[in-house]
Structure formats: structure tokens, C-alpha cells
Amino acid sequence: MEDTQVRDKIRNNSAQKKHISDKVMPNFFLLMASLSVLTTLGIVIILVTDASKFFSAVPLTEVFSTELAPLRKDPSFGILPLISGTIITTLIAMLVAVPVGLAAAIYLSQFASDKLRRVFKPMMEVLAGIPTIVYGFFAYSFVTPLLMKIIPSLQAKNALSPGLVMGIMIIPMVASLSEDAMNSVPEIIREGSLGLGATKLETAFKVIIPGAISGIMASIVLALSRAIGETMIVTIASGSSKNFTLDITQSMQTMTAYIVEFTSGDAGSGTLGYYSLYAVGLILFIFTLGINLLAQYISRKYREVY
Predict the structure, then answer these.
(1) Name one GO biological process term (predicted).
(2) CB 114, CB 161: distance < 8 Å
(3) For the stretch 116-145, what's the b/e string if a residue is b when 16 or more beta carbons lie within 10 angstroms of its beta carbon?
């Protein structure tokens, strides 16, 4: 009789605890999941609110012009120099990161032994953990002097050096994600290709890469988004020239570098220059959002289901 009462008490206590935890913990998990969503909404609201003050005072014809002089007595806020600087440094970075990253991914997934892959891949991914300010000083103090010996007309601050170093920085992203996509192709397909007489290289280019194309494209687009949003490397090595030029040997300013320059105190709070930061930030946000949506579209459209 006494044992039965104890069991009933334990059962009741367990049921009560389970009931409380089942009610409390889902709400806690929902709160944690909502933090990132609420933070994103807060950022969007602040950007749109303050950017609207800029766009209500500056006509769009001036915004999309090539003259940028925000601190002049008669200021001008053409952002095309910032957009061209961002696009040019990003393109240089992608010209480095995509071929090198894909070659590394093909080697790791198709030709490297398991032992070598376990050693080589973590070492390569160490590059992703280096602070970007270190990359910036590397571009300014090592890459630029080296390039000046090859290109005498290269200025001390230029778009070429930070573009190259950004490409080195995002190589692990392209290589690691692409290698994971290639390894997701079923082994039976790979063995079938080899069994039909194809070489490893033919299997890689005609079977594995087409089968992993959605993951490869997603890795490239994500790397593109990372390069567009990079700040410290271009701030240190690219300079702050606001001239509209396509010459990669000259100094250029990107959108992120412009924001860093003005948030350091050059623009007084409440001025038109201050609100221009939010306008540039909003355009940058739209850029990266569009690229991320493109990555999701490509990943879903070309996804192979085995």
C-alpha cells in the first residue's frame, strides 16, 4: 500500500514537472528564435526612417550622380563613386576566390586522400578565422609594396590590393562549401562514371560538378555577398578618394568605408551628411539582401535530389 502511494506521488510529480516545462520551454525557445528576427526588423526600421530624411532633402538625380563631396560648404551626395568602388573591389576579389576556391574543392573532393583532406581542409579554413583588420594591414604593408614593383603607376592606396586580399580571405568559403556540395553527390554515381571508363578528371567535370552545381553557385553568391560587405580591408588599403574612376591603380572608396569614415566623427548628428550614412547603409542592405535571395533561388532551382 505504501509502495503504491510512493509510485503515485512520483508519477504525479513527474507529470507536473513535464507539464510546466512543456509550457515554459517552447516560449523560451520562441523568444530566442525571435531575437534575430526582431533585430533585423529594428535595423530595417532605423535605416528606412533615417534614410527617408536624406532622400526627402536630396533629389535622386543628385544621389545617382558622380560628384561626392559631403563635407564641402555646398555639399554634393552622388553615391556612384561608392557603388563603383564597391563593385570593382568585389569583382577583383571574385576573380581570385572563385577559380582558386573551386580548384581546391575539386582537389579535396576528388583527388586528395582521406588523411590529407582531414589535415588540409582545417588548415585552409584557418584563413576564415583571421580578423579582417589583419588582412587590411597585410594588403597595405605587404601586397601593395609588392605590386608597386610590378606596376609602377600603382598608388599607395588603390583598389587592386584590397580586392586581391579580399579574394584570398573568401577562398575558404568557396572551397569549403563547394567541397561539401561535391561530397553530397552519391558515391554510386561517382563509381558508375569510373566504372564506365571515365577518368577522375572527367568524372569531376562531367558528373560531380553538374550534380553539385546548386551548392557551388550558392557558395559563390554567398562569397560575393561577403565581399560586398567587407569593411576593414578596403578602409585601410583602398583609401577614401571619392572620385568616380574605373582605374584600379587609384584610390577608391566603397560604401562600407564611407560609413566607417563618417561614423568616426566627420558628420555631426542631425546633419544631411549624417543621414547620408543611413542612405548608403540602406542601399548596401538592399544589395546584400538581393544577393542572398538570389543564392536561395539558385540553390532551390538547381538542387539535385537523389
Answers:
(1) phosphate ion transport
(2) no
(3) ebeeebeebeeeeeeebeebbebbbeebbe
Beta bridge partners of 69: 76
The predicted pLDDT at position 110 comes to 86
Residue 25 identity: M
List the one residue out of 170, 150, 205 whose CA is nearest residue 92: 170
Distance between CA 195 and CA 197 in Å, rounded? 5
The dihedrals phi and psi of 58, each to the nearest 5 degrees, come to -115, 125
CA distances for 269 relative to 48, 82, 92, 202, angstroms: 17, 22, 35, 60
How many helices (H) and strands (E) would you count in the chain?
14, 2
Q: Cell for 153?
A: 603607376
Enclosing H/E stretch for 194: helix 187-195
d(CA 35, CA 47): 18
Question: What does pTM read for this prediction?
Answer: 0.82
Distances (CA, A) of 115 to 106, 119, 194: 16, 7, 22
Q: Which of 216, 86, 244, 269 is nearest to 163 (CA)?
A: 86
pLDDT (tens digit per residue) in 245-267: 888 888 888 888 888 887 776 66
Q: What is the pLDDT of residues 116-126, one digit of tens each?
A: 888 888 888 78
pLDDT at position 92 is: 95
- CA pair distance 231, 236, nearest whole angstrom: 9
Angular region, 76: left φ>0, alpha ψ -120 to 50, beta rest:
beta
What is the C-alpha to C-alpha distance for residues 295 and 176, in angstroms, rounded to an integer? Answer: 16
E-assigned strand segments in the chain: 68-69, 76-77
